[in-house]
Amino acid sequence: MSAIDDMALSDEALEAWMAIKPAPRPLVRTMSALDGFVTAAVTGPRFPDPQYWMCPLMGLPRDVLAKGSATDHAVFASVARIHNRINETLFDRPQDYAPRFATKPSGGIDPRPWCQGFYAAINLNIKKWKRLLDLDNPNHGLLLPILIYCVDKRGGPSSASPGQGQRPRASSSMRPTKTSPSSSPPCANSTTSPVMTIRSDRRRRGPTASYYLL
To answer: Using CA atoms, how far apart are residues 131 and 186, in angstroms rounded to an integer?
Structure first.
């Protein structure tokens, strides 16, 4: 078991913490949405440092590793563990990757929280995602299976998804499923912080690079 595993909260404890944390509030409130956010951070445009997205994601101070509380460190470690798991899975075993969708009361799959978490990550790094959000970009269709489930802060359809009268560039058959595309990669060189190790994202060029959004 790694140092991150020793420090991290259980999924149940982390979700309970996200649900009640006061301001600054986390950008997501469920494990499904958190999984979607981290997936976007791994597969999308890179941040200069993992703390640039991990801290605002969870409403933690930027100097959390130096001055945060024991709970702050546990939350940070929990997100780092999720990041490393997604990163390593997509790079080493892409066929095993599956979005962590929520379950409806009726028992069916609910992709909306995961997609909304992915969308929250886009908004945090919106300038670098802008090119792919352009409806005239042929690659915009890569995001449609996610954006069709997303709403903006006012509760309306996300501005990046097709509006009325606009024809999507991707087939409706591209809706998210529990299995991911068979071609993927992300991942990973190790960088060491004073508290824990977080694997940084690394793109691998070649036939499998089509999984990357940017």
So the answer is: 20
What would the pLDDT profile of 166-176 be if each residue is shown by its tens digit? 433 332 222 33
What pLDDT digit, counting tens, does each position of 89-145 carry?
Answer: 999 999 999 999 999 999 999 999 999 999 999 999 999 999 999 999 999 999 999
Give DSSP secondary structure letters for 52-76: HHHHHHHT--TTHHHH--HHHHHHH
Report DSSP state, residue 26.
P
Strand partners, 109: 103
Encode 96-133: b = buried (16+ Cβ within 10 Å), e = exposed: ebebbbbeeeeeeeebbbbbbbbbbbbebbeeebeebb
9 close to 29: Cβ distance less than 8 angstroms: no
**Residues 33, 36, 41, 44: is their CA dihedral positive or negative?**
negative
pLDDT score for 2:
79
- Which pTM was predicted? 0.76
Helix axes 11-20, 31-43, angle to 10 degrees: 100
Radius of gyration of the chain (CA): 17
In angstroms, how far is the first alpha carbon of the chain from the final one? 33
| Contact (CB, 8 A) for 133 and 140 | yes
Distance CA 202, CA 147 (A): 25
H/E segment holding residue 86: helix 70-92
